[in-house]
Specification:
about 90 residues; alpha+beta; globular
C-alpha cells in the first residue's frame, strides 16, 4: 500500500481504553475495529459546516492511528463553491 500525506506521518499506539483526539484533516488511517467518534468543537454545527473547521475525531484504544503532521488547507463549503465559480 502507498500512502501520501502533507508533512510526516506519525503512528500513535493506544492501549485499551486510552483516548486520543485529532483534527479530522490530519487523520491518515487507523486500526480496523477501533472505536471512534466525531465531535464538533465550533460554536454550532452550521459554523463548522460552512467554515470546514471545528471537527475532531476522538479515538479509543486499543489500536493505532496514523496521522499527518500538517493538515490539508481547509476550503470550507462556501470557499469551495466560490472557487468553483471563478
Amino acid at each position: 500500500m502507498f500512502v501520501t500525506a502533507h508533512g510526516g506521518i506519525v503512528e500513535q499506539e493506544l492501549a485499551a481504553g486510552e483516548r486520543f483526539v485529532l483534527d479530522n484533516r490530519n487523520i491518515v488511517a487507523f486500526s480496523d475495529g477501533m472505536e471512534f467518534e466525531s465531535v464538533v468543537l465550533a460554536g454550532s454545527l452550521k459554523d463548522s459546516f460552512l467554515s470546514g473547521e471545528g471537527f475532531v475525531v476522538r479515538f479509543t484504544g486499543p489500536g493505532s492511528v496514523l496521522y499527518q503532521t500538517r493538515a490539508r488547507p481547509s476550503l470550507g463549503l462556501l470557499r469551495g463553491l466560490f472557487q468553483s465559480l471563478v
